[in-house]
Amino acid sequence: MRDEATCLLKKGVETLLSLPKDVTIRVLSHYDTDGVTAAAIVCETLYRRGYNFHVTLLKHPFEEELTKMREEGNEFVILLDMGSGQIDMVKEFGCPSLVLDHHHPVSKSTVFDSIVHINSNLVGFDGNYEACGASMSYLFAKTVDENNVDLSPFAVTGAIGDRQHLGGFRGLNKTIFEEAVSTKRLKIEGNRLKVMGKKIVEEITLSVDPYYTSLSGRKGEAEKFLRYLSLEPNKRYSELSLGEKKKLHSALILNLLRNNLQPEVVDTVVQQRYVSDSLPDDLDRFSEVLDACGKSGETGLALAVCLSDGEKYQKAVKVEQSYRELLLEHLKSLEEGELKENRSIQYFFAPKASIGSVLSGIVMNYFPYKGKPVFSLSSKNGNIHVSCRATRALVKQGIDLAAVMRKVASRVDGTGGGHKIAAGGTFKNIKEDELIKIIDEQVVQQRKRT
């Protein structure tokens, strides 16, 4: 661990442990897989130290949500997977606060009065690929007590949720993954598809990540595909022979390669899977279920599943199935013509920001690759919410979506930020077509500078 991170973590822990046990610790985190697992790690750590906590999982660190914190009279606030872009608002909480984040920070300072600001990018870990909110939270948990190593599967799940496992774990994530394996908190299974335990025709029809163009969401086409391969559609994946599995793997990968997908994406289709005795499913599936619950408004269920309430996992799986079907409806529509294209971007309109953020990632990774980042736009209460995704190849070519969102926010009324590869923003008093034009111009300008 980097020396500065160690010093800052110790400072944050000292502040926490100086508080009496009757203090309720206020915890704020994001509502996606990374945010949920970050919250699970910190809340379990607080519980083990005898502290009560009050946790809220937010869609985004909106100004109105953070403004409420000033009115609560909190004595200590911990922000996870957020906060580095909202330091000015955190300063107004009126109490000691700890920020554990991996998004692009608006300030390089690590201590503001009573705020300890621990951002991965400021302590030697790239927040785009090497560290996520959950892995930063895990560092905090280990600083509180080395025995919290059993929480490492949550940190790895958070990294998977943020797609930081593509191409293999790196940096801090790699260190935590290796620790989880060496301490037998994680086990590595052989290469296979990510499956739900259903018939193989349903596995393909309901597949969202990966999304198989012309097959996902189309049961009839999936049946034809399998019969062409001389595979029985109603068999389960576990019932296939080794030869049948290899035939299926090859055909599905060929389907993806026709879209000129990025190698690190294709490599995740058939790969090793990670399981933990402490979790109810392999980490890829567990990540999907948590993300679906969070983005379906079932944040309490997502956190409860993590905090040792395994009985609720089947309920969470049902939420995920409904969410999966909703995504498939939108993906089919995008595949059939609702995805638009400008000079330097691809874009579409989504009914909700939470759905748009997921769809933009799937479109970027699995739709025919055009070398342009994908933007989703959704309108609510006069605001336009934007989510955008790129690939590692585009980032290497100079694309920085967080910079695009900040630049757009500087030109219109709004806020924006995130990562080079994935970012977002909220904008006011502007029409959708005008905003699309400005975004397109900003990406064109980035292209010209490289």
Rg, please?
A: 22 Å
Shape annotation = globular
Describe the sheet with the most strands: 6 strands, mixed
On the 0 to 100 scale, the average pLDDT is 94
Q: What would you call the structural class?
A: alpha/beta
The side-by-side strand order for the widest beta sheet comes to 2-1-3-4-6-5
* Assigned CATH class of the largest domain: Alpha Beta
Total DSSP E strands: 14
Query: How far apart lie the N and C ends?
Result: 33 Å
Corresponding CATH architecture of the largest domain: Alpha-Beta Complex
Strand content: 15-25%
Q: What would you note in describing this structure?
A:
This protein folds into 3 domains: 3-186, inorganic pyrophosphatase (n-terminal core) (Alpha-Beta Complex); 187-275, Orthogonal Bundle (Helicase, Ruva Protein, domain 3); 339-449, Diaminopimelate Epimerase, Chain A, domain 1. Helices cover 46% and strands 16% of the residues. The chain has helices spanning 3-17, 33-48, 63-68, 87-91, 133-144, 152-161, 171-182, 200-205, 219-228, 242-257, 263-266, 283-295, 299-306, 313-338, 353-366, 392-396, 401-411, 432-449; strands at 24-30, 52-58, 77-80, 97-101, 111-112, 115-119, 187-192, 271-275, 340-341, 346-349, 374-380, 383-389, 413-418, 422-428. The strands form 3 sheets. The chain has a 6-stranded mixed beta sheet. Strand 5 and strand 6 (115-119) form a beta hairpin. Helix 2 crosses helix 13, helix 6 (152-161) crosses helix 7 (171-182) and helix 12 (283-295) runs antiparallel to helix 13 (299-306). The protein starts with a helix and ends with a helix.
